[in-house]
Amino acid sequence: MLDRTLLESLVAEARLAPSVHNIQPTRWRPDGAGLLVLEDMARRLPAADPNGHDVRLSHGAAIEGFGLALAGRGLRIAAVAMLDGLPEEAGLRPVARLTVAAGASGDPLAAAVEPRSSWRGRFRPIDAAAQEALARLSESTDDLLLIREPEAVAPIAALADRAGFHFLREDDHRRELLHWLRLSRSHPDYGRDGLNAQAMALGRVEALAAGLVLGRLFPLLDRLGLAAALTAERGKTGSGAIGLFHRPAGEDALITGRAFYRAWLAIAAAGLAACPISVLADWPESNRALVGAHPLPAGRRLVNVFRLGIPISAAAGQRARLPVGELIV
Questions:
Q1: What share of the chain is helix, strand, coil (3-state, %, to 5)?
Q2: pLDDT tens for residues 296-315?
Q3: Burial degree of 49 (CB within 10 A; 0-12, 13-18, 19+)
Q4: Which of 253, 234, 252, 247 is nearest to 300 (CA)?
Q5: Distances (CA, A) of 318 to 19, 20, 82, 196, 199
Q6: pLDDT tens across 207-224, in order?
């Protein structure tokens, strides 16, 4: 059912799914009538994601992306068999086995796959157009709790800076982030993976400064009490609305990752751009504070946080993605 040409076109679409730090850890291997989903163990984040939760979310998003690509061809994922506990081989660890079957109709979110991207710049003030888009979004998903009022968004923006700085002060975490930043177009992986300057909405001077602040100057700036202000982003975070992405407590991260991608696609389909603020959910203190101020439905947990709105300028162009040939193993 999945010949090489079709598989390549499906993976080309599935790779547009988001992954933590854009590390793109998912690999694909034909397996009889199905398809193995594998994890490239070299693309783990031992500092930021020591238990592999966010990488598993990323695999889930990739699987959902593959399902969306299948739907456009009248195919579907009939079953997902978890393969936890199997040993890795040649640096690849089995994650799941997909069974593909015929009989699917098009997915309404498929049209949002191409335009969806991460917008890390400022948003326009919440005007009538943004309110209408937020209303459309609210009707299209039950996984987002939307916070629109500026007086409620402002303290979340301040909390995001605290959470982000908490992790930046951890040397291993900061070094790992720097490893995945591509702040210069001369970086060999600028268009392949990680977070490049264009995706971060940074000009050349801003990108150079970011490398210095997060790099060798950080310990000195921290001792001088300047690092927190220089890494703050509350101006950007506070410029739009906030979406608390929540899912059932105890849900497997692979399933959560599929829902996460669909929520982000729903944001794009509503005419909005978004950027995750993962630190708000990852830091227990900020997670508790958010859920305390904005209670979630019973039995749900806070998985991630989006800042969202209408960008003040055009979103970044082509996304950094690995070649399809490297993703099929």
A1: 45, 20, 35
A2: 999 999 999 999 999 998 76
A3: buried
A4: 247
A5: 16, 18, 33, 11, 9
A6: 999 999 999 999 999 999
